[in-house]
Write a structure and sequence with these properties.
The structure is a homodimer. Chain A has helices at residues 127-140, 154-165, 184-199, 216-230, 233-239, 259-274, 277-289, 292-295, 324-336, 360-376; strands at 7-15, 21-22, 28-29, 32-39, 49-53, 79-80, 85-86, 91-95, 110-111, 116-117, 148-152, 172-176, 310-316, 340-346. By secondary structure, chain A is an alpha/beta fold. Chain A has an 8-stranded mixed beta sheet, sandwiched between helices. Chain A has a two-stranded antiparallel sheet with strand order 2-3. In chain A, strands 6-7 form a two-stranded parallel ribbon. In chain A, helix 1 (127-140) packs across helix 2 and helix 3 runs antiparallel to helix 4. The radius of gyration of chain A is 21 Å and the shape is globular.
Chain lengths: 381, 381
């Protein structure tokens, strides 16, 4: 084993001071904070950099201690010496998305116009805006082209957006468990979550920052509803089934009788400490708005026309939030665009969350793809 | 066409004054109100009565005007002269479930011990208790055996419970889109709904009846979350897709941009006027507790041993809440119990709600089953 390569602690850089970020909604953000972590070492010709795009409730702490929870990074299973995203070989960058709440500019930050937190005065942002901001970070790091851009779920949407908007800046792209446009069912689930937040009287129309209370109850409900969609029916059945908290007895009450109930409550309660309710609204909205098909006049293939980027699309058999059929739509468009694409549907009963879990077939697939891409880029002899 | 047979308006009877209802939780309810509607005419030997069991948010107004909403009954598509549940031939009974809020005793009723509404002092009820209460209504109506018991979703659970607990009182049974036990995923979705209600500060621990506010915001969120599960992804896609309210423009805000959002909000807002939040808690709990397998030592077939009841089990291809696999478990148990059972998986993209909608293959299946059952019972020459 190698000695662990350097991990940079959380860094924040101010971007866009000279060329401000123009958003899809028409608003311009004069300057933004961009918070990110890096793992591994950038090589001399800056050709070994991988950008990790995080999911809805993720953050830049992909492989380092999350400062609020004190827990391990959310993708440590993928990142490290000898792992799939091998920090002995690659320089890994993971930034908090625009609209987020872990250091990159979002609705909880101070609006320079008022001196108060933005709240709902923060402009609506899109996946395109998130990627534009990441491109400003790429410029700042003086990396001409990412060796790879990778992400699951909303991270996969960003990966697709990267390949579509900046093909010359992406050598390879690995969108996992995502879609080229958010489905009606997924918009519906997001809307339930937003309404749960907005129904909480402590939300105060988004201006809860100066209050001593936060819309934690509403946000916890939103998280619980979303969390059910991240797991498969089979995974819930295997993990919990109808197992009771008290092995023998129903309580004939509304306490958490079933293990699945206490698990969900735990997911809800723990989430609210580390996540801003308004960020949840903005980021879910960005996902809802994502529609690479509509952006290209109804023909997804046009999103990738002339692409030289190599693609590896990964889906999971038990993912009902971003089912294989939606991932296949991406693959078919890439084929129609004559792109270099491989596609693997990984057999797993873990549901959408499989991209975060110990999923050996996914590791093997991405590892193989990165190896061949590295050879092709001259990173490996 | 025949002249419309008599429709009895909503009636309420007090049951259990002499033999009180003993609940599964151990509590005894001294006397209960039972509200019901009837359609058609009971024949001389009382052999043509059909009991309809309603679903979670249904009521006794299966084929008559709902007094709160002023809308048509929820199953008018099935009930009437010449329809599948033919009021020229059958005497149809539909009662509000125990724990409900449309006249049958539930948490919004006065607790005789305190003179105030029960709220959370109402005992936890089960599907078994609902059916026990319906059996008391059957006694009151002096109907020895139902020609048929039919229901979808929670109505299907009651149908199964009837056939298991009172086989000699059920000539035929038609459980639609249900399961012999509530799955972990379904318990999880119910728990999200309950937490949404309980998170509403107007819920007041269930004691909101004397207050001028009700937990409508929380209940609306619960309804929205549940409603997504009643539809299939395909139905949502077909009905709404990513269609915008304003045909041309995203608003870049949190108003209902997408038609699916405004549809869901409408479902939530309209629900709270006609439904009691505590009833929602109690009835979802009853569904979660339903487990005919566990009740019979892990062998579902034992639930139906020696059954003379004829069964027709119906499932829908696109129902992911009560998928065909769970309906097949019922069928297999019935076969193992040597019961007379037919099973049809109806091809439809309408999801769980298909049992409430214009689903011709379901009509045809149930119609055929009722015809042959009617012959077998000597109702038809």
């Amino acid at each position: 084993m190698s000695i662990n390569p350097p991990i940079s602690d959380n860094q924040t850089v101010i971007l866009g001071k000279e060329t401000p970020l123009k958003l899809d909604c028409g608003v311009t953000l004069e300057a933004i904070n961009m918070a990110y972590c890096t793992y591994g070492t950038l090589n001399a010709d800056k050709s070994n950099a991988i950008l990790i795009c995080h999911a809805l409730t993720g953050d830049q702490f992909a492989a380092s201690r999350q400062p609020v929870t004190g827990k391990n990074g959310w993708w440590e299973i993928m990142i490290g010496p000898g792992k799939v995203l091998d920090t002995d070989k690659y320089f890994i960058v993971c930034s908090n998305v625009l609209g987020g709440c872990m250091g990159t500019t979002g609705p909880s930050d101070i609006d320079p116009k008022t001196g108060k937190p933005y709240g709902l005065k923060f402009p609506i942002i899109t996946i395109g805006d998130m990627v534009r901001a990441q491109a400003m970070l790429q410029d700042y790091l003086e990396i001409e082209s990412w060796f790879s851009v990778i992400g699951g779920s909303m991270g996969g949407m960003q990966t697709l957006q990267w390949a579509s908007a900046y093909p010359e800046r992406v050598f390879s792209a690995i969108p996992i468990a995502c879609a080229a446009r958010h489905s009606a069912q997924n918009i519906a689930f997001h809307e339930v979550g937003r309404q749960a937040v907005m129904a909480d009287p402590n939300w105060l129309g988004g201006d809860y920052y100066a209050s001593d209370k936060k819309p934690t109850a509403g946000l916890a409900v939103a998280r619980m509803a979303a969390h059910v969609t991240y797991l498969s029916e089979a995974a819930l059945h295997r993990k919990f089934g109808r197992n009771l908290q008290d092995r023998d007895n129903l309580t004939y009450g509304f306490d958490a009788d079933f293990q699945v109930e206490s698990y969900l409550r735990y997911q809800g309660i723990n989430f609210v400490d580390r996540f801003d309710a308004n960020s949840y609204l903005y980021i879910t909205r960005a996902m809802d708005y994502f529609d690479l098909v509509e952006d290209h006049g109804g023909a997804l293939a046009k999103a990738f026309e002339g692409a030289k980027t190599r693609f590896c699309v990964v889906s999971f058999t038990s993912d009902w939030l971003f089912p294989t059929s939606e991932n296949k739509d991406i693959v078919q468009a890439l084929i129609a665009a004559a792109a270099n694409v491989s596609f693997v549907e990984v057999e797993t009963d873990k549901g959408h969350d499989a991209f975060l879990l110990d999923t050996p077939e996914m590791f093997k697939t991405i590892n193989g793809f990165l190896q061949s891409s590295a050879k092709s880029r001259g990173l490996l002899s």
